[in-house]
Design goal:
The chain is of the alpha+beta class. It is built from 1 helix and 12 strands. The strands form 4 sheets. The protein has a 4-stranded antiparallel sheet, with helices on one face. Strands 8-10-11-12 form a 4-stranded antiparallel sheet, with helices on one face. Strands 2-3 form a two-stranded antiparallel ribbon.
Amino acid sequence: MKGLKKRIRAFTLVELIVTIAVAAILIIIAAPSFTAFYENARSDAAIRNIQQSLQLARNQAISYGVVVTVCPLNGNTCGTDWRNGFSVFIDNGTLATIDSTNGVDDKVIKVIDAFNSNDFVSYDENSISFSPDGLTTGALTSGRISYCPGSKSNENTKTIEIIRSGKIRFAGTATSCS
């Protein structure tokens, strides 16, 4: 029994430090690409949410024969800060205002919560309204809603274009949120 020595298998301190150093270097190199990936995914999800809400508004207008408005509400009227979220509502009375006309109240269909506080959403108008025939109402001939993650000019900016006929599509060229 003299020849049997119990041998302990483990990492040495030097091996452990080298492994941690290599892992740290790999994380430092990979972190910026994860940020860009996260911004792209966040931008894509947000712009699809906006697009689906606009399509819902247009479909509701056509299906129920009413005017439906999409806008960032500030109290009962449409505001201008799309970053804080927006609402889709049946607009029976004064356009871009939740009110009651001839005893018929406007009805909120959907509410979209605020977007990421570091991101920007831009649109030239304070509201988008769809008439019962699916066309946009008012002076809007075409418009673009842009979602910019992190800064007003980001390579991961996504844009939706709305044209007078009510067609909603993803724009091929990215713009900024200025």
